[in-house]
Structures are given as C-alpha cells and as structure tokens.
Amino acid sequence: MTIINQLFSAKLLAASALLMLQSSSVSAENEEVATPLAFTINCSGCHLLDKAVVGPSLVDIAKIYHKDEAAFIKWCVEPGKKRPQMPQMPSMAHVAEGDLKEIYQYIIKATKGTKNAKVQKGDLYAESPTMAARPRIIRTFIPDSGPASLYVALPTEEKHNLVWDTDLCRLRYITTGEASAWGYYRSSGNDLAKMGKKCYTENASLFTSELKPEFKGYRVKEGLPTFIYMIGEVEITEAIELEGNVIKRTFTGSPSLPVYQAPDRETKELRTTSQVSGQSLTVIHTAQ
Ligand code: HEC
Hints:
Cytochrome Bc1 Complex, Chain D, domain 2; 2 domains; 18% helix; elongated; binds heme C
C-alpha cells in the first residue's frame, strides 16, 4: 500500500474545498432557481445538475433523497462508499447544517422536471465549470508536498499555480500550466494531482523559528487566499495578490513578524525579490 493509499483509506482525506465566490444558477423546467453560495463553494466542483462528473448528478441525488432531508444531511456529514466507479466523497462536516438544508431545498427545486443528460466520455472533471475558472483554490494530494495541500490557480498569462502546504504552513513551489486534480479523483486517491511545470521552489520556511507552525485557515477575497497561521504566539497572515502578471505574497505578523530570511533569487522563468514596508514583508515573483 502506498502512503497515499493508506491516508486515503484512513479517511484522512480532508474536504476538498473549492472556493468560487461567484454565484451561478441552473434552470429547471419552469423556473430559474438561484444556486446557494454554500453549494457553489462546497459541492459544485463535483456535482452538476444533470450529469455525473466526479460525483452523481443532482437529478440522481434528488431521486434518492427527495423525501428524506435528514438522511441527505447525514450522508453529507458522514459520506459512505457506494459507487465502485467513483472515489469516496469527502465529508462536508464543515458546512453548517442550515447551509446543508438550504442546499437540499435547492437540489429538490432545481431538479424538478429535469432528466439526466447524455454523458460524453473523457475527463469528466473538465466538464465542471468551476474547475475551468481561475483563480481557484483546491485542496488535494499534490506531488512533493504534504497530504493537506492547496493549490491556487492564478489567472496570470503563464497560468501560475502556487502549491501551499497547510501542514508546514508555507509555499512549497510554483508551477506554470494547467493544474488538475482529476488524476487524483479518477484513481480514487492512488494518484496525485497534476501540477504543471515547476518554475520556483522554496526549500524552507522564510521564518527561521524552530517552532512548528499551526494552520488556522484562510480567507478569500476576489478568489485569492490569505493564509493565517501561528508560529508560537505570533499570528501570521500571508496574502496572495496579483498585480497584472506579478505575484505578491505579503506577510504580516501580530504582534510582529518573527525573524525571517527573504528569498532573493532568479530562475529562467521567475525573478524573486522582496520588499519590507513597516511591519510587513512582501515577496514578489515576476515572470521573465
Ligand atoms: C470532491 C468531490 C465532491 C464534493 C466536493 C462533494 N461531493 Fe457529493 N459525492 C461525491 C462522490 C464521488 C459521490 C459518490 C460516492 C459514492 O457513491 O461512493 C458523491 C455522492 C453524493 C451524494 C449521494 C449519496 C448517495 O446516497 O448515493 C450526495 C447526496 C452528495 N454527494 C451530496 C453532496 C453535497 C450536498 C455536497 C456539498 C455540500 C457534496 N456532495 C460535495 C463527490 C463530492
């Protein structure tokens, strides 16, 4: 058994958080039903209205659960393993019960009078509209990073992806090209996500502290994350920003930043410099 396999079967697979802040809607036979934001954020990467992608279609889900909201919620919090051709669904225990109820009502309404469409063969994951958009933030298993990693697919010309390890609380590397978690899902967790071509690697934390950092989560603004973590008593925020094609990572510390070593380096594809302003440090990656 590979490590990945063990992790997967040990149900250490954390929720694959797909964050998209725009709301969309699907049309049922007679009415336009607004899609709840909680559905767009938590479910839409894997569930489409009338097509099986990573998971079954909403039409199929409504068939099973149209009379049993409680069983639906139970599944979301503690999903079972049913369909042999599909991976196991990650638990949605982080979604508030009120939001799951709203999602349930939405699924029932949106599927009224709708039938499953014919499905084409191929990368079903590519059919998911939220998977094609940039920026996006996906939590999945990624090569050369910890099992709880995120990638941030940026809307730069080169299609940069930041691979950020939530266990070590730091950037691991940057790639260019289309990133895809499909390989991972298709193989039920036995393969890793595809990450494009590496153009920058950060071998250690910028902070020289010996203390193990503790991940506190991230917030999202206009599709870009700000990571929050603790090193000892210091709370650090690391905001990912874009200025045209330039990637900026701004670190601030409360009460103040621990001792750091700012990277200053050049690869063929990316020049990395840094800037200090008051209490914050900004690492700047410029495509060459
Ligand atoms: C990372 C992909 C993924 C995400 C995100 C996801 N699901 Fe699923 N879901 C699946 C897969 C895969 C299955 C099929 C699992 C199986 O049959 O073993 C599934 C199955 C289901 C089922 C069918 C259960 C049954 O009894 O057959 C329901 C209901 C469901 N998901 C609801 C949700 C809801 C609601 C959300 C968002 C809060 C969500 N899912 C998010 C992948 C996902």
